[in-house]
Specification:
Blueprint lengths: L4 H10 L6 H22 L30 H6 L18
Amino acid sequence: MTIDKETVDKVAHLARLELAESEKEAMMEDMGKILDFMAKLNEVDTSGVEPLVYMTDEINVLREDVVKQEITHEEALKNAPKHDENYFLVAKVIEK
């Protein structure tokens, strides 16, 4: 499959990239190689091959969640730049 300059411009716009003319030429070549590789993969007979969900058959072993160190309410607020008696004070992020 051939990639033209308009396709590169469209993809660059969607990706919010600014490409120089020399970069566009290189991008056309790279995108062409990617599409050629994908076409090659489509030629492979995958009938009878189940979809791969996980790379290994290993099961994730989780450790028990154990509290190792507790701090008091006052210790937690001690290094906060701004706080009141009970809470951290942060700048408002969402305005209604």
